[in-house]
Write a structure and sequence with these properties.
29% strand; alpha/beta; Riboflavin_Biosynth_HTPR; 5 helices; two-stranded antiparallel sheet; 5-amino-6-(5-phosphoribosylamino)uracil reductase activity; eight-stranded mixed β-sheet
């Protein structure tokens, strides 16, 4: 069965964005550190680079290594829409969970107005692929999908936001994950891969 993997950048105080959806405050280190870190993560998860930027970072023809599907909330989709991009991950099947978004926003995007758990359970049962499903964000969607999250890949940045969108925004539901691997980078970012116990 396919897995749902939440791959996301997180502050020290557990925020994935600021109160207004800001994400440009995550520190990348100096130019050399930032370039090395980006190259490493882009090579590991090439499919998480938006389609518009793939050629610029040498991934134009890179095959998907881990995911063939992305699920995101409206807050995660909104920056692309605001930039005039209706299909930010054209190299993936794209699902946006939103009760307010028009269903025909883009022919390459499926808007899901209802139960995200039912959607993810259906995606995980698909047998015609060995690639997993990427949960891109946001916090409310991650909170709703916590029962189906199989793995976490957390890019923990050395910054405190103080307020903003939590990594999981849902009911109190202690869920234990085991650390499978951890990598520290010179720019202060720690990438941790966790699996559901």
């Amino acid at each position: 069965m396919r897995k749902l993997v939440y791959y996301v950048a997180v502050t020290l105080d557990g925020r994935i964005a600021g109160p207004g959806g800001e994400y440009d405050f995550f520190p990348g280190g100096d130019e050399q550190q930032s370039a090395a870190y980006s190259a490493w993560t882009n090579n590991l998860f090439p499919e998480t680079v938006p389609t518009a930027y793939r050629a610029a970072v040498g991934l134009a023809d890179a095959p998907n290594r881990h995911f063939d599907t992305v699920v995101m909330g409206l807050g995660s989709y909104r920056p692309a829409l605001d930039a005039g991009v209706g299909s930010p991950y054209a190299h993936l099947r794209q699902y946006v969970v939103s009760s307010t978004l028009e269903p025909d926003i883009d022919p390459a995007v499926t808007v899901v107005p209802g139960d995200p758990l039912a959607l993810v359970r259906e995606l995980k049962r698909e047998e015609d692929t060995e690639l997993d499903v990427w949960l891109c964000g946001g916090g409310k969607l991650a909170g709703a999908l916590l029962p189906e999250v199989d793995e976490l890949v957390i890019k923990n940045y050395p910054v405190v936001a103080g307020a903003g969108v939590p990594v999981f925004d849902g009911a109190f539901d202690p869920t234990v994950f085991d650390v499978a691997e951890r990598t520290a980078f010179p720019n202060g970012v720690t990438l941790t891969h966790l699996t559901r116990r």
